[in-house]
Amino acid sequence: MPSNEGLGLGVAVAGRTRTHPFRVLVLGGSYGGLGAALNLLDLCNGRPARFSSDQVQPLNRGKIPVDITVVDERDGYYHLIASPLAFASAAFAPKVWTKFEEIPALKNIRFVRGSVRSVDPKSRRATVTVTGTGTGTETETELNYDFLVAATGLRRVWPVVPQATTREGYLVVANAQIRSVRDAQEGVVVVGGGAVGIEMAAEIKLVMPAQKVTLIHSRDKLCSSEPLPDDFKDTCLTKLREAGVETIMGERVLGTETETVEENGAVRSRSTLNLSSGRTIRASEVIYAISRSLPTSQYLPATVVDEEGYIKITPSLSFPEEVSNSQYHFAVGDLTKWSGIKRCGGAMHQGQYAAQNIHQLMLQEMQGTAPKFMELSEVPPMICIAIGNQAVAHYPTQGTKVGSDILQLFFENDLGNRICWDHMQLGKEFPETVAGEATL
Ligand SMILES: Cc1cc2nc3c(=O)[nH]c(=O)nc-3n(C[C@H](O)[C@H](O)[C@H](O)COP(=O)(O)OP(=O)(O)OC[C@H]3O[C@@H](n4cnc5c(N)ncnc54)[C@H](O)[C@@H]3O)c2cc1C
């Protein structure tokens, strides 16, 4: 673990030498944030960036001293996209949350558990409410930085994602949810037929084949708010029904009445859902997968974001030019205003580009080289949804594809847990550390 020295005020730069490492503050330790931190660690150690496809060595293989701090509300890496399986399988749930301190690849990165409250680009200082001190109290701290990467994603509600910030707390709620679904005597209803609702319904049915699972969607087509072709949406519906999920399409849930009933000595809740057609549906467990997820950018000045709160990045992922010190500020992942459906692959890709561009700026400062920035292209709509034992994908070059081979390719049998872990090389610890004197 690096020392805390790098967070102090003042960085002395004298020509090509620095007396302190570059301080890089990454807000959010998920796909985008970890992608940025790990690729930057590679480059500063003279290795090719781990996400770089050509694996060409950087031109200058010298080391650049860097001190990376990641701030996250959670105490670990949570493989978010496997939530639908994690909330259906007690055997799987523990596998998707790994404490940062137990991840070999992150040994040379400092973690602060806390919530970012404000960022002042002009003074390059962030204020963080620190929660993970072990004392049970919150403290406020200021972190100074040379470069910032904002990667705090979207605020999503329960039960789409756990609200717990510790692994222990997450396991308590995940296991309670799994019990509720398993014991739902009158079945489970999932409200909302977007990608998340489809996967939640399908994973419950996959893990608990005897359970009655019904998905209700207000439109005639699934994924109705996504700019995807009808053949993709129709294939999702066919596969969902084949997986054993009952579907009610084109009906809105107007209200839900919940009562508690006693059955065989146990107290259970039972809900009655009133639908727009006048029909009523009974269920023991109702899962809402319809809430809009909102950007977590409240800690940034208004000039950085659009009217919805998405960060207005340039193609090289930096903050908009009108923001002070914009060249030292980057944003990646779901939080950014960029084309394409929000995906973890996109977040990781953006993390790599931000790392390469920060590295270019470091080289400029230390060697006087002209920076060559990686720039994002426009991203067409693309998606892949796991539906039981199959997956349905839509990619612009290949159109709609479906099958168990597609599931294997994109998710394997753990909703991409192994794939993402290995892509980020989280299990691999590099021996070298980059804090210290520059060797350039
Ligand atoms: C159920 C579900 C299934 C999905 N399935 C897929 C899929 O199959 N394929 C796919 O490509 N994408 C999928 N997605 C989308 C994918 O999860 C996102 O695109 C991806 O998580 C974005 O990564 P990110 O790093 O930008 O943000 P996130 O993964 O949201 O991470 C943000 C991090 O920032 C932290 N944070 C937030 N606010 C603060 C704050 N103020 N201070 C400190 N820390 C903070 C959070 O704790 C979190 O660790 C799915 C999403 C959901 C919800």
Automatic annotation (TrEMBL):
GO MF annotations in UniProt: electron-transferring-flavoprotein dehydrogenase activity; flavin adenine dinucleotide binding
Domain FAD/NAD(P)-binding: 22-351
Protein name per UniProt: FAD/NAD(P)-binding domain-containing protein
PANTHER family, per the entry: APOPTOSIS-INDUCING FACTOR 1, NUCLEOTIDE-DISULPHIDE OXIDOREDUCTASE AMID-LIKE, PUTATIVE (AFU_ORTHOLOGUE AFUA_1G17180)-RELATED
A Pfam family it matches: Pyr_redox_2
CC annotations in GO: cytoplasm
InterPro entries: FAD/NAD-bd_sf (IPR036188), FAD/NAD-binding_dom (IPR023753)
